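Standup notes, structure subgroup. Blocker cleared on the magnesium ion input:
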Amino acid sequence: MATICVVGGFWGDEGKGKMISYLALHDKPSIIARGGVGPNAGHTVVWKGKTYGLRQIPSGFVQDKARLLIGPGVLVNPRVFLEEVEVTDTRDRVGLDFCCGIIEEKHIKEEEESAHLSKKIGSTKTGCGAANVERVRRSLKLARDIPELKEFLADVSLEVNTAIDEGKDVILEGTQALFLSLFHGTYPYVTSKDTGASALCSDIGVGPLKVDEVIVVFKAYITRVGGGPLEGELSVEEAERRGWLERATVTGRIRRSAPFNFNLAKRSVMINSATQIAITKMDIVFSECANARTIDEFPKEALEFIEKVEEATGVPVTLLGVGPSVEDIVDLRSEKL
Ligand code: IMP
Ligand code: MG
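Run returned:
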C-alpha cells in the first residue's frame, strides 16, 4: 500500500502522462489526483490506439476503476475540463475540488496581450498566470461559483487523506517540472507556481509524512519550450538528425533540446526528495532499446547511461520508457526496491 508522487525532473514533457497511465494500470490505485498549475500542461497518453493530450483530467483515467480528482491548488478552465470529461468518458468518476480556481476568457486575453509573457517568457497563454495573480488578490472565482461544474464538486483533500488512512493506494500526478518552478526554476523563465513534489502535495492537500515514494521522471534527453537557459542546446538541424525534435502538446511549438544533464538531475532529485527515477524515451537515444521487454535486451551504452544516472543522483532508476504506448515500459521495481 503506498502513496506515490510523480513529478517532472527537468522542464516538463518528460512523458509523465504515459508513466502515470502505466502505474495506474499496473498498481491499480483507488485514486489518481492531479496537482500542478492547470491547463497549461499537456499530458500525452497513447491508449488503445488513440492519442489523448490531457490538460485537466488525470492521466490515470485508463484505469477505469480509479476515482479521478483535481486538487484545490489546480486552475480549471471549465470548457477544457468538460470537453475532456467527454473525450475520456469519465463523468461518473471524476471530481474537482470546490476551491479550484477558475480561468476565464479575460485571463487568456490578458496573457495574449502581454508582450512580456508572449515574447520573452514564451507562456502557453492559457490564462494560468493571470488567474493565479487574481487568486493572490483574492478576487478569483472558484469552482463552487460555477453552476456547470456543480455535479463534479468534491472535497479532494478529505477523499485523498481518507483513502490513504484506509491503506489504499493513491497516485499524486504532478505537472510541469522542477526547473519551471517559480521558486526553484530558471526565473523569470518559469511558470506561475512552485512545481516540485512538496507543491504537488500542497495542491492536493496531503502532508509530507503521508507520501511513501517520489518518482521523478526524466527524459533520456532534455527539452524545453519558451525562453530561458538550456545548457548544451542543439541546433534544430542537429535535434532533427538525432530524432529529438518534438512539438508541444498544448501550443504546437517546436521544443528546444539538449543532452541529459547529470548535475541538474542531481539537484532535481534533491529538491523533490525523489526515491526513484523513471527515464522515458530510452528508445530514442538508444535505438536498440525500442520495444525491449527486459533490461537484458538493452545495449551496453544504455546500461552505462543508467548506471551514471544512479551514480550522480544516488537514487535507483526503476522505470524505463522504450516506446510511445502505455505498455512500453521496462519496470525494475521488483528487482531494485
Ligand atoms: P505559462 O505557465 O503558460 O505562463 O508558461 C511559462 C513557461 O512555462 C513557458 O516557457 C511554458 O512553455 C512553460 N510551461 C508551462 N507549462 C508547461 C508544461 O506543462 N510543459 C512544458 N512547459 C511548460
Ligand atoms: Mg507536456
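Discussed briefly. The first strand starts at residue 3 and ends at 8.
Next: hand off to the docking folks.
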